[in-house]
Amino acid sequence: MSQKTLEKPRTKVKPKTQRPPLWKVILLNDDYTPREFVVLVLKAVFRMNESHAYKVMMTAHQKGACVIAVYTRDVADTKAKEATEMGRAKGYPLYFTTEKEE
Ligand code: TYC
């Protein structure tokens, strides 16, 4: 009768939780898009309430840009494109970009 040898692993494997890298969606200011329209897009695409959307819009307006939120790369890209497209459809230069979070 054969007996199986049970070997224990010699080295401990430290379980590492891999987090996906996150991407920031950034709203850029411009001189033409109406403030109310920026607020409308932020509410529609990024699910913000009125006061949060207004604050974000005013930050971009005053500082030139504002980080809106962080998502996985695909979601960040999709939302940035969708939001930029809403402005484009109205002839506005409204622009959302993405950047990897370090
Ligand atoms: N600066 C624009 C205006 O004065 C409003 C605006 C704010 C546009 C934020 C874009 O990301 C933006 N009408």
Can you characterise this structure?
This protein has a domain at about 35-100: Ribosomal protein L7/L12, C-terminal domain/Adaptor protein ClpS (Ribosomal Protein L30, Chain: A, 2-Layer Sandwich). With about 100 residues, it is α+β, with helices and mostly antiparallel strands. Helix 1 crosses helix 2 (about 50-65) and helix 1 (about 35-45) packs antiparallel against helix 3 (about 75-90). The termini are far apart. It has three helices and three strands. The chain is elongated, with a radius of gyration of 22 Å. It has a three-stranded antiparallel sheet with strand order 2-1-3. Bound molecules: L-tyrosinamide. L-tyrosinamide binds near residues 34, 38, 60 and 61.
CATH domain topology of the domain at 33-100: Ribosomal Protein L30, Chain: A
Silhouette:
elongated
> Can you say what the CATH homologous superfamily of the domain at 33-100 is?
Ribosomal protein L7/L12, C-terminal domain/Adaptor protein ClpS
* CATH architecture classification name of the domain at 33-100: 2-Layer Sandwich
Strand and helix layout:
Layout: E1 23-28, H1 35-46, H2 50-63, E2 65-71, H3 73-89, E3 95-100
Antiparallel strand pairs: 1-2, 1-3
Helix pairs in contact: 1-2, 1-3
Bound molecules: L-tyrosinamide.
The site of L-tyrosinamide (TYC) has 13 residues, from strand 1, helix 1 and helix 2.
What structural keywords apply?
elongated, 42% helix, 3 strands, Ribosomal Protein L30, Chain: A, 102 residues, 3 helices
What is this entry, summarized?
The chain contains 3 helices and 3 strands. It is an alpha+beta fold and 102 residues long.
